[in-house]
Amino acid sequence: MNGAGARSRAAFRRAQKSLVGGVDSPVRAFGAVGGSPIFFARGVGARLVDVDGRRYLDLVGSWGANLLGNAPPAVVRAVRRAAALGLTFGAPTAAEHELAERIRARAPALERLRFVSSGTEAVMSAVRVARGSTGRSKVIKFAGGYHGHSDGLLARAGSGIATHSLPDSAGVPAAFVGETLVAPYNDADALARLFEAHADQVAAVLVEPVAGNMNVVPPSPGFLHDLGRIAHDHGALVLADEVITGFRLGPGLAHPGLGLRSDLVTLGKVIGGGLPIGAYGGRADLMELVAPKGPVYQAGTLSGNPVVMAAGAAALDELTPATYRRLERTSSEIGRRITSAAQQAGVDAFHLTRVGSMLGLFFGAAPPANFDEALRVDRRAYARFFRAMLSEGVYLPPSPLETAFVSTAFRPSDVGSAGRAAERAFAMVRGGRG
Ligand SMILES: *Cc1c(COP(=O)(O)O)cnc(C)c1O
């Protein structure tokens, strides 16, 4: 098995001469799995085609953005139509409230919202609102939770950083991260203790309702409910970061159904239909603090870009209840096939955690419940499995701490291919080859 083809390898060598590390986001460089990254030429449905003409089943889905698979025709049509009318105006267009209305219809917790261009911006801005409204400076996040790369939130921030073994990032003043307190995920008692130690200083608790940046870690029963109660008892706000889970786990937000009461919500990924987007919103009284209505400043030259808005609206229009039901069946079947492939091959130290179309492939003794446990993953086993799957035509996340995403474009035949690939890949891993 030889990893990337000649053209991918050549492209990577050339890219490194002008782009830092040859990539525009670190995990793409394959540092965690070894070898040279695959460069893609195109994608259609559940399939990707690389620059060497090799085909792969896509279980990355652009890190969750491609819920409908690659180049979904309805979204591509909407993008073409919108682009022809003008790429950006820097002035209001109806496309913005049309997407906002679609989101609010299925996610009524967003009484008011604002579009930005990335999830990072969305969370950064929502934190500013929380601080602006409470007059408090600290925030609490959970170890292994990723909320974008803004300065203050790069503390024990999950996959990308853990993969690169940086405790933090260089260039972030200690004082900034000092405003961020970190609690273990799935431990309400630890959260309560942290609140008691910092009484009246915490503006908000940030949480991914289903953690998706330290492998897939579902909330344990009662955890999110307790989190909301503890935060509110201490006068802090709850920021549900649904950049991954929003409109992926169902038509709308995931956290209300999981028992969490939020004040602010962030979205991204799926709602842009594959184009760059983020959104933050929540209680109207909080969001009305944002300029031009209020004193919390936030702006963006390309925010609410009409082409992005059209893509998002077209994507949401495709996401009917029937689509989610089919996605659930497909995801369940893929999860089942991968699990049984591991069992057949006698690979015991493997666990697949699935929440909807989020799959966590974990090489370890027991599925993780928090970041410390997630870090106990057998990285070399994952790297071997990743390379074996690649040679079998399946593109998995190039990191043992990331989530694999299923899209609605998977057909039954694709599910079968994924299952057979997993059977061969586990046999190779067990054989110690690769
Ligand atoms: C991806 C992600 C972000 C950051 O979004 P970007 O668009 O990459 O800036 C924030 N929060 C969560 C939970 C994410 O998964």
Task: Provide a descriptive summary of the structure in words.
37% of the residues lie in helices and 14% in strands. Helix 7 (188-197) packs parallel to helix 8 and helix 13 crosses helix 14. The chain starts with 5 loop residues before the first helix and ends with a helix. The mean pLDDT is 95. It is globular. It has 2 domains: 6-67 and 320-430, Aspartate Aminotransferase, domain 1 (Alpha-Beta Complex), CATH 3.90.1150; 73-318, 3-Layer(aba) Sandwich (Aspartate Aminotransferase, domain 2), CATH 3.40.640. It has 434 residues and is of the alpha/beta class. The chain binds pyridoxal-5'-phosphate (PLP). Residues 118-120, 123, 146-148, 208, 212-213, 241, 243-244, 268, 278 line the site of pyridoxal-5'-phosphate (PLP).
As residue ranges, the low-confidence spans are: none
CATH topology of the largest domain: Aspartate Aminotransferase, domain 2
Class by SSE composition: alpha/beta
Strand content: 5-15%
How would you write the strand order of the largest sheet? 4-10-9-8-7-5-6
Tell me the distance between the termini.
7 Å
Q: What's the CATH H-level homologous superfamily of the largest domain?
A: Type I PLP-dependent aspartate aminotransferase-like (Major domain)
Main sheet summary: 7 strands, mixed
Hetero compounds? pyridoxal-5'-phosphate
CATH class of the largest domain: Alpha Beta
| Structural Rg | 21 Å
Q: Can you write the helix and strand succession as a string?
A: HEEEHHEHEHHEHEHEEEHHHEEHHEEH
- In DSSP terms (H or I, runs of 4 or more residues), the helix count works out at 14
Mean pLDDT: 95
As for the number of domains, it is 2
Instruction: Tell me the total number of β-strands.
Output: 14
What sort of overall outline do the alpha carbons produce when their principal axes are compared? globular
